[in-house]
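Extended Data, panel c. Modelled sequence:
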Amino acid sequence: MFRKILTLTIFCLLVSEFCSLRVLAQEEGVEITVYNQDLGLVKDKRFIEFKKGENIIKWIDIASLIDPTSVKFKALKHENEVRVQEQNYEYDLVNTSKLLEKYIDKAIGVITKDNQAYDGSLLSFDEEQLILTKDKTKGPVVMVSRENVRDIKFPELPEGLITKPTLLWNIISDVSDKDLCELTYLTKGINWHADYVVVVDVQDVNLDLVGWVTIDNQSGAIYKNARLKLVAGDIHLLKPKEDVVRMERYAMSMKGAPQEFKEEGLFEYHLYTLTRPTTLKDKQTKQINLLSNNNIPCQKTFTYNGAYYGKKVKVSLEFVNSEKNGLGIPLPKGKVRVYKVDKENALQFIGENEIDHTPKDEEIKLYLGDAFDVIGERKLVNRQKITQQIREDTYEIEIRNHKEEDIEVLVVEPQQGDWKIINTTHDYKKKDANTLEFKIRVKKGTKEVIRYTVRCEW
């Protein structure tokens, strides 16, 4: 809309105002810990030259979504000699509307795109036009289309408006000395999540796993050459927290890449520290490799639960997050996209799922879709009422395998009440109080039929 908002006059006034105080930008180093709950912990270190007595310090280049109540200031060398008396968070940032609001009934200058100049008091404005007058009683009144405005000149920056979010301190110092000071605060607007790419081999017995960290910085600050740490886990927050970039192209290229994050336990969570500095720009999404492991043993499984899914047989991929399998590190929750190598050694997408935070040595099961060539069918073939509280049901489950290979299918049967198997054609396992399981092998091009009778009592 406007190509210029502030004139050189305002710029000079800003410089003059800032020179009267100690204005500190990022200099010495910043560390940021990002939580996967839209929260970041920032530790920013800068040198301050203190004079004995009262000091007014402005600390700029902070997150615009900072929580001012979380701020902690510390002079590292003179902690006991430097005291903060008062802290203010100033966030009334300069923009066109705020400047115009401050200049209602005051003189401004306007230059249009066709080089027409207008000077006068600003009577009012909206999105369409500016209304000015040379004399409030005699006129004339000029209406200038905002689309035609090239420049607006303001005599000075109104009091209270600033160009960047700023922390301002009134500090009492007992010494005159230069000290390295640390500012610690929490900010919203920064988040991270994990994404994983899995590539399964032709035989479905091994997989390659690549993990990526995606960091989204919308906090309103740039963190230059920052030491980056990530916390995985669900921390308790008193206030409720206020599309993923695809990584398929890295599925093959990152095989054998060095691990960039060092993992350690932190309370009941896990901390991942990047082994090198990185810069997080505002309004930027950054991806960093988390892990890369090859030839992890896996198993393709078929599961049929006819009571809930009709004829559909679910297909999953299972592997164990163990050191023996080349993993054995806590895996942050995230989306997993799975590919398979076809006979021409090309990748084909075969499904996606999500994992929760997964400790080492735990099994990961990824449901990827429904089998095309395997069909299940479940029938209640007989029901006999023994008493008012007891009945016997006979079920028949048929699994038809149209594939060119033998398969193993886990058949899951939900149960109710106090139940007991009276007779069955196949061995079974009582998984829990409400679940019966059969594990059967079905040869290629054939079918297998399970028939069992259960007595239920209520």
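The longest helix spans residues 8-19. This feature is highlighted in the accompanying rendering.
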